[in-house]
Design goal:
This protein has 476 residues and is of the alpha/beta class. It is 23% helix and 19% strand.
């Protein structure tokens, strides 16, 4: 018997209003953080009208996602039902986001990864990629993401529930925003290990030779990339993931996906659409940022497609108030494939870079390998942000973002010639210490739980047998 993949049409339905004004569905953590950072509740936080959703169901539509930010829903239905739904008084628009187009086998999935490299990796595997942005001193001072909640949104988390490099108790749950389960795909099954690899550079620990960027952060895993199709629906899946992360009180959201070409080429995005406002997906990333989340996004791997000026970004890499991440090697040199900006409205993208050329990671077999792509630079940067935020828990997402930018090596002279590096490579220790007072008295009297000593009038931060200056230099 041959099993045929039946792709059903999907639409985004937008409603007129929110008549019920029921209470926002936010977790206690989310509510606490909103209060802490004075982020008001607004109309976007109210749920979509259950009455309107009921009318869509009564017309024959199947609700897949609800979007409170865009007052709408992703609905699976045929063309006849879509016509009925469009005629409802509560509906303002019905937009098709997936049709029955055959999967384009020549279209690369929008996972921002290039290719596997050698598994013969010398030395302490992860030292170089952490050292590039000077993260070890922050780790040595005891800041490794504790108290920070992350979300990793991707396309496949094969064996992420079994790999012993992860402490399973740090995963608080997982969510699948695709409809792949009805085709027999399991969340931790073989839909690829791209997400597993991204998670490893944040949370993985293997002996004394592999160490993630924020190994004490808790996290949710979210899947929005569908296995067999490439359609605008996947961008709405990502919107649903961002809204869910907001409701859970997630602090740092890492997504290594990007979109601009689809199975149906009629939906391919024009360059003018990369303005941070033209797609729901990019607007959602900005909304998430303004509601207290630090959103880290892969720039993409189309930097070598020189026939695509003026930029080669993917959506939502054009989103405002986020951190779009390019890929460099451990010497700080840009990867030839790393997508470049600017956005169509002239903003610098990517803003920052991290190691995405021969990044050391763990795959679904529990093996340590190297692979390249802005996919892996992005969770490295997200882990950096989580570690930094754990050291500065009273600051909000925009303050942490600003510290990351200000610490970057090109901050005063950003790359506005080729738009590859943005503000450059950030420095974790510099980001942490940049606003400390010039004297040492207040630091000596601080309540921060790291050890401090004075040697010849110089303040040193110590942990174990290692000592660091305030600029992150290891002292013999």
């Amino acid at each position: 018997m041959i099993n045929l993949l039946i792709i059903l049409s999907v639409y985004f339905v937008t409603f007129t209003d929110k008549p019920e004004k029921t209470a926002p569905q936010l977790s206690p953590r989310a509510e606490e953080q909103r209060a802490k950072w004075n982020i008001p509740t607004d109309a976007m936080d109210y749920p979509v009208s259950p009455m309107y959703l009921g009318q869509v169901r009564d017309a024959g539509g199947k609700i897949m996602h609800k979007s409170r930010w865009f007052n709408g829903a992703t609905v699976e239905m045929d063309a006849e039902t879509a016509t009925k739904v469009a005629a409802l008084k509560c509906v303002t628009s019905v937009e098709m986001t997936r049709d029955d187009s055959e999967p384009n086998l020549y279209l690369p999935k929008r996972l921002a990864r290039k290719r596997e490299q050698s598994s013969d990796i010398p030395g302490a595997y992860t030292d170089a990629q952490l050292a590039l942005y000077n993260l070890q001193p922050l780790h040595a001072a005891g800041f490794e993401g504790q108290g920070i909640l992350m979300a990793i949104c991707d396309g496949g988390f094969y064996n992420a529930d079994k790999i012993n490099a992860f402490r399973q108790e740090q995963e608080l749950g997982h969510f699948d925003f695709t409809d792949d389960d009805k085709y027999g795909y399991d969340f931790y099954g073989d839909t690829g290990d791209h997400g597993t690899e991204c998670l490893s550079v944040i949370s993985g620990i293997r002996g004394d030779y592999f160490y993630g960027a924020a190994t004490k952060a808790q996290y949710y895993l979210m899947r929005s990339e569908e296995n067999d199709t490439e359609s605008p629906k996947e961008m709405d899946n990502l919107v649903a993931a961002l809204e869910k992360a907001d409701s859970l009180g997630v602090n740092v959201f890492s997504v290594s996906l990007g979109y601009f070409r689809f199975d149906n080429s009629a939906w391919d995005l024009p360059k003018s659409a990369f303005d941070g406002r033209s797609t729901r997906c990019s607007r959602a990333a900005t909304i998430a940022a303004r509601k207290g989340m630090l959103v880290c996004i892969a720039a993409g791997n189309e930097g070598d497609e020189w026939g695509n000026p003026p930029h080669t970004l993917g959506i939502p890499g054009d989103a405002d108030s986020t951190l779009t991440v390019g890929a460099v090697n451990t010497d700080g040199e840009i990867g030839y494939f790393s997508s470049y900006g600017p956005t169509s409205d002239g903003r610098i993208k990517p803003e920052v870079c991290a190691v995405g050329v021969k990044t050391t990671l763990i795959n679904h077999t529990n093996g340590v390998v190297q692979a390249s792509g802005t996919s892996f630079a992005t969770p490295l940067l997200a882990g950096f942000a989580a570690a930094l935020w754990s050291a500065l828990p009273d600051e909000n997402a925009m303050q942490i973002r600003e510290r990351i930018l200000r610490s970057s090596d090109r901050y005063k002279n950003p790359d506005i010639l080729n738009y590859q590096y943005g503000y450059g490579i950030p420095d974790a220790w510099k980001a942490y210490t940049m606003d400390l007072p010039t004297g040492v008295e207040s630091i000596q009297n601080s309540e921060i739980s790291y050890q401090k000593i004075l040697r010849d009038g110089q303040l040193l931060i110590i942990k174990g047998e290692k000592k660091y200056t305030l600029t992150g230099v290891l002292v013999p």
